[in-house]
Design a protein that fits this description.
Layout: H1 7-13, H2 19-32, H3 36-42, H4 48-59, E1 62-63, H5 74-77, H6 82-88, E2 90-96, E3 99-104, H7 110-120, E4 123-128, H8 131-143, E5 152-155, E6 161-165, H9 169-181, E7 185-189, H10 192-198, E8 206-210, H11 219-225, E9 231-235, H12 238-248, E10 252-255, H13 260-275, E11 280-283
Parallel strand pairs: 1-4, 3-4, 6-7, 6-8, 8-9, 9-10
Antiparallel strand pairs: 2-3, 5-11
Length: 286
Amino acid sequence: MTNKKKFGEILVDAGVINEIALRQALDRQQITGWRLGRVLETMGIIAEKDIAVALSKQYGFRSAKDFARHAFTKELLDLIPVKLCKKAQIFPLKRDGSSLHLAMVNPLDIPLIDEVSSATRLHIIPVVTTSTEIAAAIRRHYEERDPAQKETVLVSDKEASILVIDASPSSRLKTGEFLKKAGFLVKIAASDTEATALTRDFLPHLALVDTEYPEQVNPYKLLQEMGDIPLLAIGPNPVKDEVAFLNSGFVDFIHKPFHQDRLLARINSGLQLVYGERKGKRKKGR
């Protein structure tokens, strides 16, 4: 495997991206330090399933999808701790004698394969899949089966983290700076795709979703993909949108334009609603 082409070259050869897009993604990777697949997703160039198809085609890996709905034994799941599954984006699919079929986002990660092989004392057979598939399987088979597997962290006024999702550059920067001055840990995203990718490494206690530009930020897509992250909607239509968003699962709605103090009050109210007064427990669901 070590003589195979680099990941970006694989995607070019498979016709998933062109060389110009690859160069742009590599430049951004130098700035962000993210995995190339994640960079391509946040740039809106490639979908997760296309990455899986490209890897399967180039290297002859089997691929897996919709496996969260299948049944897995406790003995199989116990082979790999849930923390490692989340961190490395892997999931045990099947044990076949001395071999373990392992769902992986990056089946070319040789150090990870060696680590799992050493820990389980099994030969690892990589099976390519997407991070979304793995997240769904972890939620259903590790966390829903055993709630104790969900990690908890304390939330205080000074520790709360906010993800600002807004297609308007000036608006998201202004909101982000205000919340930082208010004492929050803040990350910003320009699209629903970028927001979803960010939450793999950054799990906010609450996300602000500006709904004015649904082409870039689809609030209902975020509602499906954000797991148990509470979402607070911001939009220009107070009555129609507020009813729709609250009924669909958003914790609150703020009408634009708004005063920053009002935004801060709604955020604090949302945090108290989800996590309790001043301090509460945050359960990670992704």
